[in-house]
């Protein structure tokens, strides 16, 4: 048997004319809607900005419209592609006894199955080979070489897809940094019968994306607009399709397309597929957490601005949370702020207490911690406007004042930009929210520190909604922030360089519930402390709040809230917190001013 595998004599040879006729047959069937993209610019040492930009545009369009595309000049040698398909053909020509000797890796569909094929499946490092007397080292070497090339290509595609989504190039590689779930599968489809030509029924792939190489026979079809589009095979082309993970992470912007395999008549079909997967325990709930690239607003990219506003509008309407990248806040500043705050909070309590709030402060700026006992476990260092005389900073951390001041100013700038974006997302003049909220003296920056969880208590900050206009959160890599949606708590996975944005009560009232202020909380991690910053982009305490006429009178809708002074709401909310701490359930928060009485936990 090893001699047979070392030779290609057992492989059914097709004449050049036979192959060309089969290719022509498939091309005549095919629609040319599935684009073929030259990815060579991504592999060249000399920068080809025009080539990479053009390729990215085509890939983005294909992922949005079809979830499928084909690539050429991908860096995988043509000879290796052919040798790999030949190796699989040779294996599938073996007896069932020989094929079944590959433990847990070979599978043949049952007679009553809706599928009619057999496959050979391996996950790196191909441990199944060690027990397989039917497979020679040559076969193993070819497949290992193939997986190495597929993995390298997958890393390149990760970067491309990340940028096509407006994310940092390393976003997907950071999210999906474990290669242990990747797998390579060779497939053999038997010839169709008169009664059935189904090879693989309609399905979507569950992973990040899939890379496929098919022989000259064809049979792969993609579902689009209620039609099945054949993907005609072509020498050296690879088919790439988006999986469920990317669809979820992109909040349905990129599609995981339905596809199937139709068995050809009177001949066998061979292909192999590389599944670029994630760990089984990776949380995919960030579909609720769209990540928005704000760079178009700094570059004057009108089309990019429009798309970003659409994503933000949907996120604010449905969830009240989203993340932003390329926001203008220097990454170095964010990193330094987290390191300095961590250093401060690790100081002895006596030293931190030297930064206790000054008497008479309108808000307790300085160091504070939750009383013991408390249902929350967090420490704070609060900063008011940089010019405030009530700010208190540690004498032994002189850089902290400067860094927090810089961070405060950067957050205030991005807050003004977001006010304009949100105004336009709501269909209002760009200056609407800025004109309403034109005083910056009430903004607050807070550094937070959460102790590691204990066996009995994991709560960091209990379920709540933020009181201001907009909140920005800079969190370290530990995580712990969770958002409530449909009765479930969704973790907000930290992303390097990203800021979390959530809508506050003020915007919920102004928009008459068009935008939601969601419940969220912080769960303390096991075995690790957590550091973060929150910037509260607020309105002044004396501000009069009521739904804007744009969302009531002008569209003939009744207001959901009576008008009130912001400080009155803050007082009622504080009373509510005191009652909750005492074990009472009475709600005297925003529902006190609600005309519909449907608000919870304010």
Task: Give the beta-strand count.
Answer: 26
Structural class: alpha+beta
Net shape: elongated
**Could you tell me the strand content as a percent range?**
15-25%
The residue fraction in helices comes out at: 25-40%
CATH architecture of the largest domain: Sandwich
Low confidence ranges: 1-32, 128-132, 280-288, 582-588
Query: At the third CATH level, what is the topology name of the largest domain?
Result: Jelly Rolls
Strand order in the largest sheet: 1-2-10-7-12-5-4-3
Count of individual domains: 3
The CATH top-level class label of the largest domain? Mainly Beta
| CATH H level, superfamily name of the largest domain | B-lactam Antibiotic, Isopenicillin N Synthase, Chain
Number of helices: 16
Radius of gyration over C-alpha positions, nearest whole angstrom: 29 Å
Mean pLDDT: 82
Instruction: Tell me the major beta sheet.
Output: 8 strands, mixed
Distance between the termini: 73 Å
Domain Fe2OG dioxygenase: 180-278, 441-539
GO molecular function, one term: L-ascorbic acid binding
Pfam family, one: DIOX_N
Keywords: Iron, Metal-binding, Vitamin C
